[in-house]
């Protein structure tokens, strides 16, 4: 590994310093929002084992019965990594006693500078129960590839510092994937959330996995459901349908005790003309796929909504998954939610 190869930038030595690894999903120490998605079909999480600072070996495969929240970073990161760990600190506090069933793991992508004791002290500064893991470079690269994580060094621009050469170690930052990887109690990788996700959303996903009694449901599931109501007593429900099975499913109808009627609709734009089309045939959810019900597209239309507090009771009917009962959070007018 490079990083200790010279004093200053003369001789173009910096060009010979290797990249740790280049894989997929670059997010880096930049504030890219990233992508939020469920992993379908449900599959076992890639292997991960590394010694803790205490010397005890951590194995992801031995965390059955716990929800594992995994992230990647390094101790010299000035922005993304502290933000990530602060989010996890807030999550831990919001979970209360349920936090005992959650394992928070932070894996270093900079093993040359992050010693085991240094990494452990850094992570525990955010919470004493958090685990920091350091892998040797030869083990780190294939593990990052298996998790589809990017980590690559970024060195200073040679021209910028030509008149002010560095002395000592050549400094660098590490562009790396900024995300939360959620592993359920059965050891399956269930979702990846960008590091910018609100802590409320992260908490919702972790609590959903904690509530599962066994293997994840084999039928179509609902994620990110939210309702928007207007003073005119109409509204819309938006959500994501995820089908982890090998057969197509279909959302055929919906109902709510808090609304006179719920219909499946879709907005179709023809130039500036927006048309609201009922979809009595329902919404197909392909095998191993997902369907987004989002503003300006597919949604559930609510009619004559009764006064409600902060949630809306809703039942969805699927051809194969059957009835799915939800309590949908309600967004008030003017809130940041769509």
Order of helices and strands: EEEEHEHEHEEEEHEEEEEEEEEE
Structural class: mainly beta
Number of domains: 2
DSSP E strands, number: 20
Helix content: 10-25%
Largest beta sheet, briefly? 10 strands, mixed
Summed up, the helix count is 4
Report the end-to-end length measured between terminal Cα atoms. 47 Å
Mind telling me which CATH architecture of the largest domain this is? 3-Layer(aba) Sandwich
CATH fold node name of the largest domain: Glutaredoxin
The backbone outline, from C-alpha atoms, is elongated
Share in β-strands: 35-45%
Radius of gyration: 24 Å
Could you state the oligomeric state of the chains shown?
A: single chain
CATH superfamily of the largest domain: Glutaredoxin
Stretches where pLDDT is under 50 for at least 5 consecutive residues are 1-34
Name the descriptors:
338 residues; mainly beta; Glutaredoxin; Immunoglobulin-like; six-stranded mixed sheet; disordered N terminus
Can you walk through the features of this model?
This protein is mainly beta. It folds into 2 domains: 10-211, Glutaredoxin; 221-331, PCu(A)C copper chaperone (Immunoglobulin-like). The protein has 4 helices and 20 strands. It has helices spanning 80-95, 116-124, 137-147, 199-211; strands spanning 37-44, 49-51, 57-59, 67-73, 102-108, 131-133, 151-154, 173-176, 179-183, 188-194, 221-229, 235-242, 249-255, 259-270, 273-278, 283-285, 290-293, 298-305, 311-318, 322-331. The strands form 4 sheets. Strands 11, 12, 13, 14, 15, 16, 17, 18, 19 and 20 form a 10-stranded mixed β-sheet that branches. A hairpin with a 4-residue loop joins strand 9 (179-183) and strand 10. Helix 1 (80-95) crosses helix 4 (199-211). The chain is elongated and about 65 Å long.
């Amino acid at each position: 590994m490079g990083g200790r190869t010279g004093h200053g930038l003369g001789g173009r030595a910096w060009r010979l310093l290797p990249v740790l690894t280049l894989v997929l999903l670059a997010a880096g120490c930049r504030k890219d929002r990233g992508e939020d998605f469920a992993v379908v079909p449900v599959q076992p999480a890639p292997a991960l084992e590394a010694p803790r600072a205490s010397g005890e070996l951590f194995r992801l495969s031995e965390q059955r019965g716990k929800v594992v929240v995994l992230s990647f970073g390094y101790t010299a990161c000035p922005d993304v990594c502290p933000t990530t760990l602060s989010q996890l600190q807030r999550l831990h506090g919001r979970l209360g006693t349920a936090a005992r069933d959650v394992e928070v793991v932070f894996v270093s992508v900079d093993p040359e500078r992050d010693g085991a004791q240094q990494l452990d002290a850094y992570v525990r500064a955010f919470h004493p129960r958090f685990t920091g893991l350091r892998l040797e470079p030869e083990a780190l690269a294939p593990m990052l590839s298996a998790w589809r994580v990017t980590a690559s060094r970024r060195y200073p621009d040679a021209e910028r510092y030509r008149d002010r050469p560095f002395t000592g170690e050549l400094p660098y930052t590490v562009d790396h994937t900024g995300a939360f990887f959620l592993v359920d109690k059965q050891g399956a990788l269930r979702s990846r959330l960008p590091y910018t996700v609100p802590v409320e959303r992260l908490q919702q996903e972790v609590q959903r996995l904690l509530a599962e009694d066994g293997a994840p449901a084999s039928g179509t599931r609902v994620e990110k459901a939210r309702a928007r109501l207007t003073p005119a007593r109409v509204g819309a429900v938006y959500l994501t349908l995820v089908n982890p099975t090998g057969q197509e499913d279909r959302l055929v109808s919906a109902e709510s005790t808090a609304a006179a009627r719920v219909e499946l609709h879709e907005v179709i734009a023809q130039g500036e003309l927006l048309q609201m089309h009922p979809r009595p045939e329902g919404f197909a959810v392909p095998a191993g796929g997902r369907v987004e019900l989002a503003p300006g597209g597919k949604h559930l239309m609510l009619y004559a909504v009764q006064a409600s507090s902060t949630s809306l009771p809703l039942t969805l009917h699927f051809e194969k998954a059957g009835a799915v009962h939800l309590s949908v959070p309600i967004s008030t007018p003017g809130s940041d939610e769509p």
